[in-house]
Amino acid sequence: MLNCAIIGGGPAGLAAGLYATRGGIENVTLFEKGLPGGQITQSSEIENYPGFFDHTKSGMDFMDSWQEQCFHFGLKHQMDEVVNIEKEGENFKINILGKEPQLAKSVIVCTGSTPKKANIKGENEFFGRGVSTCATCDGFFYKNKEVAILGGGDTALEEAYYLSNICSKVYIIHRRDTFRAAPSTIDRVQKKDNIELILNSQIIEIVGDAMGVNGLIIEDVNKNKQKLNVPGIFVFVGNDVNNSVLKQSDGKFLCDTNEYGQIITNLKMHTSVEGLFVAGDMRIDAPKQVICAASDGATAALEVISYLNERS
Q1: Topology match between the domains 4-115+240-311 and 131-235
Q2: pTM for this prediction
Q3: In degrees to the nearest 10, what's the CA dihedral of 6, 7, 11, 14?
Q4: I need a labelling partner for 226 at 20 to 30 A (CA). Which of 10, 147, 167, 292 fits?
Q5: Closest Cα partner for 4 from 293, 266, 279?
Q6: For residue range 105-134, what is the model confidence (pLDDT) as tens digits?
Q7: Catalytic residue chosen out of the listed positions 137, 177, 256, 285
Q8: DSSP 8-state secondary structure symbol assigned to residue 6
Q9: 110 given a catalytic annotation
Q10: Catalytic member of 61, 64, 80, 134
């Protein structure tokens, strides 16, 4: 039996693994069906994590050293997909796709969130053919071309700035006239010559042909429409919580959630179920920053240590 199962290998999961194993817990396994690292591996640069300010390094570079450090202290990585987690007595059953379940005395869930769709006409049809949610992944395909970004938060503006160094022009389309991003990010975007802001407007349709996207139909607050001829649109309108591993056979969740499916925790990452902890973007009030996710993971691991000591 595992002493601790960690579900999800992003910053929260890796930090949890580091603090759990270095804190003396044996038999700690990180379940991550792909390579550990999380969403941050898709970022073009990291400039807001203390001690890491190398603009030549990407999110993937940033996370490489995390894996090495965590595995050094004994964290095991099991490259399996967890279907869901159930309570079995005072322990937990980890149901794994295509394999026998495993039991664990405690669980830390760090499965994060995924980018939301904007639900625009044509978005699904052209996804992967001009519609993207990852500037780092797809920006190169639009070198010296014009592209658009939908969104008004930190991610949207940061990725717009990144694309402005690749593309001839970047349009930021936002339904309001103010942004939700950090003031320094807004200032940097506003000073970039090849970034144009289209505010108080929304995209009502993504249009194209067999070759992919070739334009956007935009409508302003006065219902005036225009077509913006661009071959690519990057959508950054928030995230959906990846909470499926906590869903039970009756459709309910193993622990308490809010109306958005975010997991209700206290400041120590405790859920409503004893021995079950949640860290990172999937919890309520998560700031959705790498440093905060790592802090959550460390906090959860320290609580697991206390929990297991009380059980022994």
Answers
A1: yes
A2: 0.79
A3: 30
A4: 167
A5: 279
A6: 999 999 999 889 999 999 999 998 999 998
A7: 137
A8: E
A9: no
A10: 134
The amino acid at residue 294 is A
**Three-state SS for 247?**
strand
- The pLDDT of residue 37: 81
φ, ψ (nearest 5 deg) of residue 240: -100, 140
Task: Return the domain boundaries, the chain.
Answer: 4-115+240-311, 131-235
Which residue from 244, 241, 309, 307 is spatially nearest to 277, judged by alpha carbons? 307
If we measure between CA atoms, which residue out of 39, 26, 116 comes closest to residue 73?
26
| Active-site hit among 80, 138, 220, 292 | 138
User: Is-catalytic flag, 134?
Assistant: yes
Token pair 């987690």 is found at 85
Residues 61-74: tens digit of each pLDDT: 888 888 889 899 99
The domain made up of 131-235 has a fold known as FAD/NAD(P)-binding domain (3.50.50)
The domain 4-115+240-311 is placed in CATH, from the list 3.40.50.1820, 3.50.50.60, 3.40.50.720, 3.20.20.70, at: 3.50.50.60
Q: Is 4 known to be catalytic?
A: no
State the Cα–Cα distance between residues 237 and 151, nearest whole angstrom.
5
pLDDT of residue 44: 63
Q: Which residues contact 146 (CB under 8 A, 6 or more apart)?
A: 167, 168, 169, 170, 171, 229, 230, 231
Gyration radius from the chain CA atoms: 21
pLDDT tens per residue across span 221-277: 999 999 999 999 999 998 899 999 999 999 999 999 999 899 999 999 999 999 999
Distance of CA 209 to the CA centre of its chain: 31
